[in-house]
Amino acid sequence: MTPARRVVIALGGNAMTGPDGSATPTVQRDAIREAAGHIADVVASGVEVVLTHGNGPQVGNLLVKNEMAAHVVPPVPLDWNVAQTQATIAFTLADELDAALAARGLSQRTAGLVTRTLVDADDPGFREPSKPVGRFLPREEAERFVALGQIWEDRGEKGWRRIVASPEPRSVVDSPAIHALAEAGFVVVCAGGGGIPVTDDGSDGDALRGVEAVIDKDLTAAILARELDADTLVIATDVPNVMVDFGTPTARPLGRVTVSEMRGHAAAGQFARGSMGPKVEAALRFVDGSAASRAVITSLEHIADAVTDDDAGTVIAP
Ligand SMILES: Nc1ncnc2c1ncn2[C@@H]1O[C@H](COP(=O)(O)OP(=O)(O)O)[C@@H](O)[C@H]1O
Ligand SMILES: NC(=O)OP(=O)(O)O
């Protein structure tokens, strides 16, 4: 395999919370410390790293705080909440990653960038919410919120989860700044939570306007990787491989697969909406039509191997 040069790593929400999805500051910092060690190992392998991350648990929790305190302090819109999660997660990642880089004797340091992502104002994702956020609740508790007008969905064995609008990312507005920071030698943390969704509907001169939604971070990562001319996209989650027949007795892990094989599995409904589905779609969008690119979906512990070794995780290549 051709050695990687510039890698975009998309860090899953699972990597930043506890095993049971809990998101106290201590649990988040401990999880991020562990993630930072694996990311620093990727940097140590000699590649440029641009890091993006999820925010599903964190942005859902902020929404709840806003709603509960609405009679005391003015609530802020969902795009502001996304911006707030970018800042909190980026500073925590920067603290832990800088320490992990220094511990390995590496000279690189981390820079976090508040990042906007352009979406279409008439995207169907605004009318048909699809993005799970926040905590899991048992059905009876979730139904209390449904009665208040919220949308909740059965997410399987962990329980029910709130669902919000999630338009398709079109482009990362701040890509040129990310590129400049990467070229200057920084490990850049950017486009967290898929980026702050903004539209350009021409109604306000040249100004972009934030819109209330949460973009899928894996889909944004695919665009970011293309815009930064990365050769490798690594989607880090909590399973070592994508599986076919997931959760059934015939489940089997996928190793190296072509774009057309993976499209076949996706078309056969193998990958769940709101979890593995967008990861596979992001990997396919990044690799499709670009002979020099490679996408890997694997667990955090395997990301350094995924960059240097063709046998780690599920590898999608042209
Ligand atoms: N076909 C599949 N192969 C592997 N995992 C799957 C599959 N379908 C659904 N999953 C689930 O997807 C989860 C990862 O998605 P998600 O929880 O959204 O990740 P993250 O928060 O890390 O971005 C896994 O923990 C697994 O339970
Ligand atoms: N925004 C987003 O996709 O977050 P998660 O990866 O945490 O769901």
Automatic annotation (TrEMBL):
Gene3D superfamilies: Acetylglutamate kinase-like (3.40.1160.10)
Domain Aspartate/glutamate/uridylate kinase intervals: 6-296
GO biological process: L-arginine deiminase pathway
Catalytic activity: hydrogencarbonate + NH4(+) + ATP = carbamoyl phosphate + ADP + H2O + H(+)
Record organism: Geodermatophilus sabuli
GO-annotated molecular function: carbamate kinase activity
Keyword Protein biosynthesis in annotation: no
Name recorded for this polypeptide: Carbamate kinase
Recorded family membership: Belongs to the carbamate kinase family.
Recorded GO CC terms: cytosol
Keyword terms: Kinase, Transferase
Pfam families given in the database record: AA_kinase (PF00696)
